[in-house]
Amino acid sequence: MRHSVDSITTQIRPGTSRRREVMHFAPQQINAARDAERTRIGRELHDVLGAHLTALRLTLELVRRQAPDGNSALSSALESLELGLADTQTAVSTLAHDLHPPELRDGLSMALRAWVRQFERRTALPCAWECDDAAALDALEPATAAALFRITQEALNNAAKHARATQLRVALVARRQSVTLTVADNGRGIPAGARRKSTSLGLKGMQERCISLNGTFRIENAQPHGTAVRVTLPRRAGSATLS
């Protein structure tokens, strides 16, 4: 009987270990699949929809050249279409870039710096950029770099939508075994109840990315006012030591 119990226990433990391993890696796989899909959609937006919009713009230019002079109503309609098309092209280009930033292939520091500047132009919100070691950031593993990039996007977009801020800051600090991202604003802050609701302000996805990479995620009210999102991830995937 004792032998049977030991045998059952031996069988259960490997199974439990495998389940834990699957539960640990499942979020990483989900995030990797999500990033791959975003990349595909971004490429399709740029290549396919972008080409169609360019063709429409060329067609409008042809129509304008062939339109009879003196028809103010037609000229006004064409001008309105051209302005609307230009706005649509800008929106598609921005969305495609957000979904599939080509600079990320050249390193995280360049990609984030470019995206922060684009964010400033789009929102008219000044955002300070601080990076203490660009070389260390550019040497991060792809999963870690992608997570930091997406979390920065989400945190800045949340601040622009909800914080009522006039100044933002993005800071990346590389240490021996970890890298820490801080996205802070001088807005109205977040009530304690809202911080407990992880689905509010789009925090759930950021938390899941951190957990899948053995990282830590904190959101807190900054002093004297505002909000700070702080993320620390190990520089090597799978490491749990953050120092």
TrEMBL record:
Name of the featured protein: Histidine kinase domain-containing protein
GO MF assignments: phosphorelay sensor kinase activity; protein dimerization activity
SUPFAM superfamilies, alphabetized: ATPase domain of HSP90 chaperone/DNA topoisomerase II/histidine kinase
Alphabetical UniProt keywords: Kinase, Transferase, Two-component regulatory system
Any single Pfam family the record assigns to this protein: HATPase_c
Top-level division of the source organism's lineage: Bacteria
Keyword Transferase set for record: yes
Annotated source species: Pandoraea thiooxydans
Keyword Protein transport in annotation: no
Matching CDD domains: HATPase_UhpB-NarQ-NarX-like
Cellular component annotations (GO), alphabetically ordered: membrane
Signal peptide extent: none
Stretches assigned to the Histidine kinase domain: 148-237
